[in-house]
Amino acid sequence: PSRPLAPLPAQEPVLWLGEVALPSEEEAASTFWYKFLRRLETGDAVWEGNGPHHDRTSIYNPCNLVDGVYCLPIGHWIEVSGHTDEMKHTTDFYFNIAGHQAIHCSR
Predict the structure, then answer these.
(1) Distance, CA of 58 to CA of 64 (rounded, Å)
(2) Left, alpha or beta for 42 (phi > 0: left; psi -120 to 50: alpha)?
(3) Which one, of 83, 18, 89, 80, lies nearest residue 49 by Cα?
(4) How do strand 56-59 and strand 31-34 relate by DSSP bridges?
(5) In angstroms, rounded to a whole number, what is the distance separating the alpha carbons of residues 3 and 38?
(6) How far are the Cα atoms of 10, 71, 90, 96, 100 from residue 67, in angstroms, in the given order?
(7) Which H helix or E strand runs over 89?
(8) Cα distance between the two ends of the chain
């Protein structure tokens, strides 16, 4: 089951976690294909990207296994255009934080 790491307003980026049962270590050495899914406010869900050419792949690496949990790297949402639009998401996030004056820096 997927769940957000922290409750955030819809316009801010959010980290979602999901649990998936993977095959045994011997079988896991093959390529694993996956995609992210976004749930809309309407309750509908949309797949990232535009077709199977935007599928993500992962090949088992024992270095990604931490305390029995296999961790994939953080990824950016792939828009229908095929781009991650990382700059837009980062800018939206920054201006939302700045607008709420919710940023604090200390050493």
Answers:
(1) 11
(2) alpha
(3) 80
(4) antiparallel
(5) 12
(6) 32, 10, 31, 35, 38
(7) helix 86-99
(8) 37
CA quadruple 77, 80, 85, 88: dihedral positive or negative?
negative
pLDDT digits (tens, 9 = 90+) for 49-99: 888 888 888 888 888 888 888 788 777 777 777 777 777 777 887 888 888
Q: Which one, of 66, 65, 87, lies nearest residue 76 by Cα?
A: 87
Q: In this structure, which long-range contacts are made by residues 79-84, counting pairs with CB atoms below 8 Å and at least 24 apart in sequence? A: 79/48, 79/49, 80/49, 80/50, 81/50, 82/49, 82/50, 82/54
What is the token pair recorded at 75?
A: 């990824």
Tens of pLDDT, residue by residue over 41-51, are: 888 888 888 88
